[in-house]
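Task card 7
Instruction: Convert sequence to structure tokens.
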Amino acid sequence: MAEVQNFLTGNGDQRQTLVVVFLRGGADGLNLVAPLEDDGYYRSRPRIAISKKECVPLDGFYGLNPLLKALEPAFQDGALAIIHAAGSEDSTRSHFEAQDLMEHGGITGGGWLGRFLRAQNKVTSGPLAAVALGKAIPECLRGSPAATVLQSLDDFSLGDNRPRLTQALARLYGMQTDVLASAGRDTLDAIRRVEQLRTTPYLPANGADYGRDDFSRGLLQIARLIKARVGLQAASVDLGGWDSHFSQAMIMDPLITRLAKGMSAFYQDLGREINHTTVVAMTEFGRRVEENSAFGTDHGRGSVMFVMGGGIKGGRVLGPWPGLSREVLEGPGDLPVMTNYRNVLAPILQRHGAGDRLGQVFPEFTVAPLPLFG
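Output:
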């Protein structure tokens, strides 16, 4: 892959990585994190609600879907925070329009993550600073200084003549003292690190057990890059397929299991490196509060966001809860958005180097950062 061959950086001193997980299709926040003590939840979902007996208790009011139990250790460690009734101002309930608005960070050009990489106080040293696991660059990374798309580290290759090529480049850059030469030497160092990764079998640490699905494999690749110290600053990985208008459990339960297995394995695998890493999981909108006649839910508004990583004041479910009484529901019966997703992203970006430049990342939006960090 020529694109991958050109997109390398060797800034090993960069220790902070932001991982963005997008749950495409409208994940049902009410069944991911159930409001156990809100009678409206059980009144609206007599057949598909998660029972109090099944839930993993969180704080006396909310309960975690039992399929997310693997995330309980991170929550108890204080490394996982949940934000309920979160989402965007988009009210179209259209997957395309809601995803577009959320990934762009508003009605503006480029993606919010790309603008962050441009606006941060730290220097973005090269294209490997931003990686998308998959087949295409997501909209959130549009406009970034550079971005790499890959599905596996096996995509990195300089061909059969790699030793001769790197030796020649090393001699060339070694004779120069300018910024370009310094960047070239860093790149060659990164090539050596990645080549070593490619040729060394990877064993996840601390007994972490990743799944075999694309989502888990993507997180495993991100963990390898973080540990290799190649300067990864931002990574994006999707878990799609959440649109469930009928037989919700049949469609969403396998995805919930993949989400839990992937994120928990990543948390376990990173060990101390989690202190330099933040994972944020988000979805374009939630599902209707009331179940439909086909054991499913229709497009709604508010959902949940998960934030996992170092420095977080976790072990909490954040954000005001509006209740599920009919008079507070929005439109045809949706959970209102009480916390705008930008206010969740804002403190994360500040921690990762945005400084006072949030206005450049989220133009025409007055940011009120959620108190995520201690």
